[in-house]
# Entry
Amino acid sequence: KDLIELYLDAKHFIAMGELFNENYSAIYSCSLNDFTITLFCLNPADLLRKCLKRSECSILFSATISPMHYYKDILGLNNNCKQILLPSPFPKDNLRLLCADHVSTRYNKREFTLKEVVDSISSLIKVCPGNYLVFSPSYMYMNAIYSLFVSQFPDVECFKQNPSMSEKKRLDYIKKFHS
# Structure
């Protein structure tokens, strides 16, 4: 089983390596007994454009695609695609955007600002109790924030998204927000 898994991982890595071009970046890390290469797709437009060309039509939607021209470009959409921007169905009084611009969540700063992010979230909850959604730039960073937060504030009910949730688990997760 381990050999098959290693084979499939190696085959996948080689396939990804064949796609490697200026749209990718590689991060190498080395420790005493381990060497890791991580490939990051910085601009998926070319790959997405190829996928979209194989379909008759595609509908893309999101609550956060803004600015529209940026996402059209990065999603590989052509300039003449039709678009519609709908107003939010939620009252404007329910929206508040707060920015902790003194805290960097850039990849190379994340381990140093993790406590500041958790402190900012807890300060907000203390000042204005309610329900919150916390977004992070990656699942790895989200897991780190979540772990530190629940260890420091075990009485605060928290739910965390898992990228490999089954459809049933995803529906159960969403139901938690309706109660």
Remarks:
- The chain is about 40% helix and 10% strand.
